[in-house]
Structures are given as structure tokens and as C-alpha cells.
Amino acid sequence: MAGPLSGQIIINEQNLTPPGMWGGVVNLPSTLPGGPITIGPNEPSPFDSPLYGVPSATVGGGSIGLAPFGINIADTDGANSCLDPESVVIHHYGPVYAVGSNPPVKVFALDGTVEVEVTSDFTISVDDDPFTLDRTVTVTLPPNTTFQDDYPGLCIVPVRAPETGYSVLRCALVQGGPPVADWSFSQMHDCDCPADLNGDGVVDADDFFLYLSLFADGDPLADINGDGVIDADDFFAYLTLFAAGC
After folding, report:
1. Which of 92, 101, 118, 213 is the most exposed place for a label (fewest CB within 10 A)?
2. Angle at CA 130, nearest 5°, toward 87 and 198?
């Protein structure tokens, strides 16, 4: 590619089983240290095709997805409780939709080794258009609650088969609208490591660039010192947390 990836590339649009894989490679421009990312059928981890595992913002905002689409953990928002967001936004590698008003994901509260379904507590939004380009599912907290105090541990999974009271989460722009891949997303809100913004247990460049993105967007999550203003004080406060690590 000559420039940033701003659109959507779909592999296996015809919904073949097993999926038809690509035979060549794609070079993605990247703002991450190390420059362009090369992804393809023979690429080593963490850039396994097409699960290249970097935020879409670093390659131009677009995405490459193999149907059925999984989730890009590096792009998923709301995993860190120290910033205590109001919602979790699940980002897929390709566009998704669900028909009807029933939830297309299930949400479970984690209490030790016990999982209790709490889907009905949350507001869950996803596009209902099978031709959408939207790759997200948003899971929003009930009013007057926080992840830290009320839902310190959560697991979110997609609905992949018809079930009373739920809608199937499907791949948009793919023949037949197949269910998404079998993924799960867990998050624990313990604030042991406030610099670990993406919640992967490691403080690294991914967290730093995520904070830069939040800061540039004026996102309330970038207000590290909690004074209601996003400014240099917050930037340097995050640098201090980043340098301290976990």
C-alpha cells in the first residue's frame, strides 16, 4: 500500500469454509516504532494474518479482516479501570451488525471462579445494517455505576447462534451474513497498574500510543489528574506512570 489504510479490506467475502486465504502480503504503513507492518499468510506472531494486533489508528484508521471476523484487542476501548470509562467498545477486524433490539453479546460478571450473567444491566449498541462499515459493539454501564465499584470483573462473548432473547452478531458485507468468530473479551478493574491502558498486563509502546490518541482526541479518559481539563499536566502525569511501569 502506498498510503495509510483508511478503508476496509475483507478477506473471504464469499464466506468459504474453510476460509479462502490470501496468497501474498500486504504492507501497512504504521506510526509505531519500527515503521511499516507486513502481514500475510506466513507472518510470525504478533502479526499473524490477519490478526496483526495493533490499533487501527496506527495504520490509518482502517482494517483488514478475514471473515468470520474476530476482535482486535489492541483496538478495543475501556479495558483499564484506572481510567474508569463508562463503556467498553469492542472493535472487530471487519464490520458487524445484528438485526433486532435484543443484545448480540452476553455479559458476565466475574466473582472468583463463578460467572453470573448481567447482560440485562447494560445498554448494548451495534449497527443493524448488513452493509455497514461499523466494526464496533458498545457495552455501556447502567446509570450511577462504575466498573471499579460495581463490575470489577467482566467477560463479554458474542451470540453466534439463534437464542430466545438475543440477536446473532453477524459479519457485514459478507455473503450470507455469517456469525462472527468465537471470541471472548475479559477485563479486570483492579488499578494495580494505571499505566497499562490496554489492560494486557504489560506497560509498553502500545499503552503510550493509546494515551497519545486519547490525549489528542480530548477524550475524558486522558484526564489523568481528574481536574476536568486535559492539558500538559495530564500528559506529564501519564509519563510518570509510564516510567514507573507495573
Report:
1. 101
2. 30
